[in-house]
Design goal:
- The complex is a heterodimer of chains A (221) and B (290).
- With 221 residues, chain A is of the alpha/beta class.
- Chain A has two domains: 2-118, Rossmann fold; 133-200, no CATH class.
- Helices cover 28% and strands 20% of the residues of chain A.
- Chain A is built from eight helices and seven strands.
- In chain A, a hairpin with a 2-residue loop joins strand 6 (114-124) and strand 7 (127-132).
- The longest helix of chain A is centred in the first third of the chain and has 17 residues, at 39-55.
- Chain B has one domain (3-288): TIM Barrel (Alpha-Beta Barrel), CATH 3.20.20.
- In chain B, 43% of the residues lie in helices and 14% in strands.
- An eight-stranded parallel β-barrel of chain B has the order 1-2-3-4-5-6-7-8, surrounded by six helices.
- The longest helix of chain B is centred in the last third of the chain and has 17 residues, at 248-264.
- Chain B is globular.
- The chains are: A alpha/beta (221), B alpha/beta (290).
- The A-B interface holds A 153-166, 169-172, 183, 198-202, 204 and B 78, 82, 104-105, 107-110, 118, 120-126, 129-130, 140, 156-159, 161, 165, 168-169, 171-172, 175, 178-179, 187, 230-231.
- The complex binds iron/sulfur cluster (2 copies).
- The site of one iron/sulfur cluster has 13 residues of chain A, from helix 8.
Chain lengths: 221, 290
């Protein structure tokens, strides 16, 4: 999933301070799962903002809505009946959702209420960790299902640097060394020989190196 | 005889590492280098070692060449993509730099510019392959070079806290040699007895091995290394030796000199790393009888 964290309330207040009527829009997908921008967080932020503005002597009207998917134009249409009655939109979706709103409603300012962080997974309640950087040419098949691009601090593709110590990365004791994980897993799978072949330098063109990316599926057009 | 020839012929080589300044005052760097001229085979210029922004290794090495001192530069992929790496290596060659060590840069989060973005386009293996490619007259995009560079390229063997880590590190060095590394520079050695067996195993890989001797400067520094780098094998006895010495600085020089002298019959050379005490390097060489 795409993970996100809510921005500090003061930053959000600064962003929306010129506006009196806001549409606060959550998303039912990833940001709900990581408890950053779902229906519940929309309700919480709405009350927190109203209280905070009231304390500073301002009345702000907030309409709350949570869409099934904010990155999908089909669901964005559900905002049409509400958009004219507000001055601006505050979105709790990831950056993709915020941009869909901006694309659809050209005359309305839209603000992000969360910081979109990474593509990751939940490690345990309350902890999410990065798992994929969308490099466009997945290596997991040769690295035992553990991503060196997202999980090795130096994005090494051919074994560890010299800093790996007792399974931890040199950048800190809280970070697992991805190459230790890869090696242990390849060994457990009896696939150590995979490690023998040097991987060629990565073609970053499949990733962000090639500029903004698009997928075009003519069969679906 | 230049470094390449000495390494080939099995002669003992002496390398001294010199940090470039954080700024443009090169008087100390050049002065220290002049004092070592004729006493070392080459000066190793690291590139922003320990993650501290400094004058580039390329410029530092060019200054060494101007002084008539052979140089070695560190190369790694944290801050430069493959275009910048190749371009700088071509630049290094025309400025007279013939020796490289492909190293693992400090992670960007450990560097002194906390807001910087890492590049990490090529890892050490890929950089070694890139150098091999340049030496064959082609760049990484397959275009022919006008004039082909030739380098003597080394790689590194990190400090290892246990046997398992050492085995993995040796395996990595073996792969680096397959990718083009022609010699190995080890992490600093503080415990002679422990290091000998490790060095011998590294030497069995078939290329010259050059251990690093780090010049300790104080009890505090020794203790820091012992605590933070378990792979250093820096013993309590060594820390006590510095602490009890009437002249601690002198004792530090003597310790480094003893390790240097001890390695003389064992390894194919040494690299002395002074981390700011470059002006004391001649004294270490004197004490070691080099
Ligand atoms: S290799 Fe690339 S696509 Fe596969 S998990 Fe890693 S970053 Fe994602
Ligand atoms: S310690 Fe492991 S995870 Fe950290 S940079 Fe080195 S290889 Fe990558």
């Amino acid at each position: 999933m795409i993970t996100a964290e809510r921005k500090p309330i003061q930053e959000i207040m600064n962003l929306v301070s010129p506006y009196k009527n806001l549409l606060l829009v959550g998303c039912n997908e990833c940001v709900t799962v990581c408890s950053a921008g779902g229906r519940k967080e929309v309700a919480l932020l709405s009350s927190a903002l109203q209280v905070a503005f009231m304390k500073s002597g301002r009345i702000v009207h907030i309409q709350e809505m949570t869409l099934e998917r904010q990155c999908d134009p089909e669901y964005i249409e559900q905002l049409v009946p509400h958009i004219d009655s507000v001055d601006a939109v505050l979105s709790l979706a990831c950056g993709c959702g915020v941009q869909e709103i901006a694309r659809r409603f050209k005359e309305k300012m839209v603000f992000p209420g969360v910081n979109t962080k990474f593509m990751g997974a939940s490690e345990r309640p309350g902890v999410w960790a990065e798992r994929c950087q969308g490099c466009g040419d997945c290596l997991l098949g040769v690295t035992g299902g553990i991503c060196p691009i997202a999980r090795c601090s130096k994005r090494l593709q051919n074994g560890p640097c010299g800093g790996s110590s007792k399974g931890k990365c040199e950048i800190g004791p809280d970070v697992d060394c991805a190459w230790q994980l890869i090696w242990d897993r390849l060994k457990a799978l009896g696939l150590q020989e995979r490690y023998e072949t040097l991987l060629p330098a990565k073609n970053w063109r499949n990733g962000r190196g090639g500029g903004p990316r698009k997928i075009v599926r003519e069969d679906l057009m | 005889m230049n470094l390449k020839k000495k390494l080939k012929s099995g002669e003992f080589v002496v390398l001294a590492e010199m940090e470039t300044p954080r700024g443009v005052d090169i008087s100390e760097l050049v002065g220290n280098a002049q004092r070592l001229k004729g006493r070392v085979d080459a000066v190793v210029v690291p590139d922003m070692d320990c993650g501290a922004m400094r004058l580039s290794a390329l410029a530092g090495a060019a200054l060494m060449q101007q002084q008539g001192i052979e140089s070695v530069i560190h190369v790694y992929g944290r801050d430069r993509n493959q275009m910048a790496l190749q371009s700088d290596l071509l630049g290094a060659y025309v400025l007279g730099v013939r020796n490289l060590v492909v190293v693992s840069g400090e992670g960007i989060s450990q560097c002194d510019h906390r807001k910087a973005k890492a590049v990490d386009d090529l890892d050490e293996m890929s950089i070694l392959q890139m150098i091999r490619c340049l030496q064959q007259g082609l760049d990484l995009a397959g275009f022919e070079l006008k004039g082909t560079p030739a380098f003597t390229t080394g790689c590194t063997l990190p400090a290892c806290a246990d046997e398992k880590a050492f085995e993995a590190a040796i395996e990595q060095v073996r792969r680096k040699i397959a990718a083009g590394a022609e010699y190995v520079v080890t992490a600093p050695i503080f415990n002679f007895e422990h290091s000998i067996s490790c060095l011998k195993r590294a030497m069995s890989l078939g290329v010259p091995v050059i251990p690093t001797v780090l010049l300790l400067k104080s009890v505090g520094m020794a203790r820091y290394i012992a605590v933070n780098e378990p792979g250093s094998m820096l013993s309590e006895a060594l820390i006590a030796r510095i602490r009890k010495a009437p002249d601690r600085e002198e004792e530090c020089l003597r310790i480094a000199a003893e390790i240097v002298a001890g390695l003389k019959g064992v390894a194919q050379g040494i690299k002395i790393q002074a981390l700011g005490w470059e002006h004391r390097l001649p004294a270490v060489l004197d004490l070691a009888g080099i």
